[in-house]
Amino acid sequence: MSLINTEVKPFKATAFHNGEFIDVTEASLKGKWNVFFFYPADFTFVCPTELGDLADNYEEFKKLGVEVYGVSTDTHFTHKAWHDSSETINKIQYPMLADPTLAISRNFEVLIEEAGLAERGTFVIDPEGKIQIVEINAGNIGRNAEELLRKVKAAQYVAANPNEVCPAKWKEGEATLAPSLDLVGKI
């Protein structure tokens, strides 16, 4: 079953954020756009490149009213230790959400049960708490924050303009399509 247009299931977790531990629940997501960015584990190889890329683009997400959550099955203590010991992770300003019970990873259907780790799953969640974008990558394939920004802009555009759709490679400011019988077979 697809998670598209489903509501984020209830959860309660602790995140490391700006030098503090904070509580995050599904209610924390309401009223704004959010990205859940699952990754396998702290102190690994591809993960810091992805999280660093998100950190480098975090201000652009914030300008769009989007909160980013890095999520792994590590504890919030491990997130702090990694933040304190890695130059790349130290630049992260978004919450690093801990999922040691594996519940959140299960809710988003990214848990690798036999490993107790999450797949590289990316989820864009609208202000009503519904999932609008799902992307899952194999563990050895890193993601691109600029492409994620493009997708978030497209999701926000179609949410604000429900009678339009964004074609392939759409970028902010480019033409969209208005689905109609007149377009069938003409694209």
UniProtKB/TrEMBL annotation:
* Keywords assigned: Antioxidant, Cytoplasm, Disulfide bond, Oxidoreductase, Peroxidase, Redox-active center
- Domain Thioredoxin positions: 2-157
User: Which terms under GO biological process does the entry name?
Assistant: cell redox homeostasis; cellular response to stress; hydrogen peroxide catabolic process; response to oxidative stress
**Any keyword rRNA processing?**
no
Q: Name the domain of life this protein comes from.
A: Bacteria
GO cellular component terms, alphabetically, are:
cytosol
Matches recorded under CDD domains: PRX_Typ2cys
Pfam families the record matches: 1-cysPrx_C (PF10417), AhpC-TSA (PF00578)
Enzyme Commission number(s): 1.11.1.26
Where does this one sit in the cell? Answer: Cytoplasm
Q: Which reaction does it catalyse?
A: a hydroperoxide + NADH + H(+) = an alcohol + NAD(+) + H2O
- Recorded GO MF terms: NADH-dependent peroxiredoxin activity; thioredoxin peroxidase activity
Q: Where is the active site?
A: C47
This protein's assembly is summarised as:
Homodimer; disulfide-linked, upon oxidation. 5 homodimers assemble to form a ring-like decamer.
Q: What does this protein do?
A: Thiol-specific peroxidase that catalyzes the reduction of hydrogen peroxide and organic hydroperoxides to water and alcohols, respectively. Plays a role in cell protection against oxidative stress by detoxifying peroxides.
State the family it belongs to. Belongs to the peroxiredoxin family. AhpC/Prx1 subfamily.
Name the record gives this protein: Alkyl hydroperoxide reductase C
